[in-house]
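A quick word before the example. In earlier lectures we treated sequence and structure as two separate objects. From today on, think of them as two lines of the same record. Here is histidine kinase written that way.
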Amino acid sequence: MIPPFPSLRLPERWQIPVLAVAGVGTLAATTMAAAAGVTAVVAQILYIPIILAVVWYRWRGLAVVVAITAAYIPILGWLTGFAFPVFPEAVARAGVMVAVAMVLAALSSHVSALARDYPGIFQHAGGGYIIVDQRSLAVLDLNLTAAEMIGFAPSEVVGRSFVSLFADPATAEGTAEALKAGQDLDVLEAALTTRGGGVRWVRIVSGSLPEERAVCTLLDISRQKEDERTMNALARLAGESPDPVLRIGRGGQILYANEAAMAVIGAEAPGEKSETRAALSRAAAEATATGDQVELEVQVGDGIFLITVFPIEGEDYVNLYGKDITGRKAAETAIRLNEQRLEALLRLDRMYDAPLKAITDYALSCAVSMTGSEHGYFAFLDPEERTLTIQSWSDRAVAACRVDHPKTAYPLAETGLWGEPVRQRRTVILNDYAAPLPLKKGTPPGHPAIRRFLSVPVFEGERIVAVAGVINKAAPYDEDDARQFSLLMTGMWGLVRRKQYSDDLKRSEALYRTVFEATGTATMILDGDGTVTHANARFRHFGYDPADIVGRSAWATIFSGPVHDLSGQYHQMRRNGADNLPPIYEGTVRDADGKERDALVTAAMIPETDLSVVSVMDITPLKEAEREIAARNRELAAFAEVSAITSSLLPLPERLDAALAKVLDLMDFEAGAIYLFEGEGDVGVRVSQRWPADMEAPYEIRRLAVPSEPQYSSDRPEGVPPHIRENFASCASIPLKVGDEIPGTLNMATRREHVFTTGEREFLETSGRAIGGAVLRARFSEGLERANADANLYLDIMMHDINNANTVAAGYCSLLLPRLAGKEHLMAKKVLSGVRQSIEIIMNVSTYRSLSQRATRVEPVPLDAVIRGEISRFSELDIRYAGTDAVVMADDLLSEVFTNLIGNAGKFGGPEVTVWIAVAKEDDTVAVTVADNGPGIPDDQKENVFGRFVRNAPRVSGKGLGLWICRTLAERYGGSITAGDRVPGRPGDGAAITLVLRRAED
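And the structure line, produced from the sequence above:
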């Protein structure tokens, strides 16, 4: 609080002493001045104690004033006398002092009253007040209200800069400039910094005070500011809301839309109205008409919003509040897809007995439906991950496919995008198939077009077992589609594998049951005590009903025979862990009729049980067959020896003696003989025999006595010859029959009774055919040797005598031709041609004979000499040859090739024909072409022209051996020969025969 007279402010205890000193001092000074003659000026200092007394004590201070003036007048009269004018002036001056004191007392009383009221007004006014020095901006004073606003004590603020209290430097700077300029602050709102570091908002109004002071009135507006912030926050609530908020008027116009709502309704072009706005306007009209809330869902891009329309009673507008339910919809979709997938898996589980294709078809149709796709496929991947095999197409894909019999197996290396899930081993999503992508290989013709693509691999552990894919969803495929698709396919594969395991188990059970029942042996399961727990139907072979032996001991039934001890011992040892027991052994068992049978017993423990499986095979027929086989083996061995003997190169008599001895030794017969017939004669001569020393076999037999079929004494005793019946007990007569011919007979006998078994009969009859074949081969060989000798004789006659005659005739014809003319000349020429053809035939036969009688041995042969030698033999022909230095691999028969080639050209081309012989050397071959301008070789005959006895021109005589000999010799030399046209593509312009031979090394 500021006192009424700040300069006179003094503590109350010091007021009386100061007042006494001032009064006494001023009176003393006045007395001294009066004594010196100064009465007017010095007397003015008496106002000092007068003013102090009046100011400090107001009306009570007049007593001090009266005392001072009462003392002043006598002192002055005493010193100066009471003379005029000094004394009257002193009295007047004293009166003025008293009057001034009274005025001051009145003023002091008034000021004191104001001073008493000022602190209350200052401290308890409604606002805060701060008195500021306008020059220094220091706080001179402030009331408690102002101090409380900023949380300081008044003494802590006085003396501080007023602008240091401002929180905003810019506001502080503006306020300082205004105060220093003496300007009043007109309703300034500012934030002051509180003691605790907070902010107090105040409204400041300033006014000027004397002495360059200003009083600032502070009104606390913090609550108002808080209310304003609250109101502003409420006002921004709709605008800042992430959810759409709109207000639509009755006419459908949008009165308000926050930023989120603008994103929903979108920008609207002039004259156009978006579908979303139209839907909102319809919903607003419905809510206005019914007075009820209306809800609708709108799709905005990838988001979905639920819009609730609230009608406002009594207003011409409705409020719309939106909520983004994309996540909820996604969750609902995921739940729906999960339910669909679980429902599909449940139904798949019920398709336990359905075929595999029905299962994959249904799972694929569910996947297409769940993902909203148009088409789908499912393919198995082979264990080597090399081939994808289509298992299922979706129904619409099959309908849309325009390919007849589309293939189902695709090598992975040739697949494009749909093979990527295997190569990348992850899901592949492509929502813009038209975009350039190196992974694509295009869509095959006739297949549905692809816009969007989703494919997932199906894993079994770390191995990919299948690939599934869908295409052409209306919206882009996302991870949820991929996850649901993959889960469905994986679940389906699990069911498929379970079905496969179950089917395998069923098949295994059926297989093992079938095997158990159809092993072909009597099979049973024995427990540790030897009790039969299972028995198959094969036990009926031993006379046991399977139902009767189950529950009984095997040693009381089938093992009651000689095998009893051995099988029982093995049974116990096997359960004691013995591992050196034979799994298969032979023994004798007893059937239900008590008959003993040879059996093969197989036994093995069933793992991790005390059970064993035992099978019993009846091998009685096998044992009998073994004995039979042993006998047959002996017979076969003997027959092999007989065959070896009859096929040997020994003379026929020696072969017959050895064969007869081998047969008799095997049969253990004492007597035997072989008789042969010559030609159609009726008498057979003995050529081999082994007879008891005291007897001799007949030398001859009649053909009528030889049977056409084998005869055995045990079959027809009456058919045994008398000389045999008289000396022997058993005999056999085996015709040496080969085909329809019987060149002889094998007779044998024994003095003991003998019944010929089937094996012995087969042996004897087979041996008879072998001996008969040896006889016929010997006779054929003799005939062939005679025929070869005759043929060689005929060929020698042809080569020497006939060929010499032909040579002489050809010579005379050659001499005769120039001397003849006309018809005689033509006839002589034909004779000469016929003779030469005869010579050609003889030479071809001679060449063929050489080819068949000697081995091929090629050597380097100069080609030029051979060709020129043959040209000289055909002097009547126009032969054009430039010569060559080529050396080829051939023999002395090479000239025959050119003889035939040049001769054929003249034969078919006539006397006017021209023959060209050209030689071309290549890397390791030499090609000789003999061409002519004759009639040529038709295309359809070029392949067959080198065949044996092929004649392409019926009008020309010959046997068709020439070109065949050429080919034979070419192949003999390791070369080849081909027929072509002299002018390519024009067979009628002449033939060209090309002989290719191996070139001799330099």
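Notice the following. Residues 1-7, 267-272, 953-959 have pLDDT under 50 and may be disordered. We will return to this example when we discuss secondary structure assignment.
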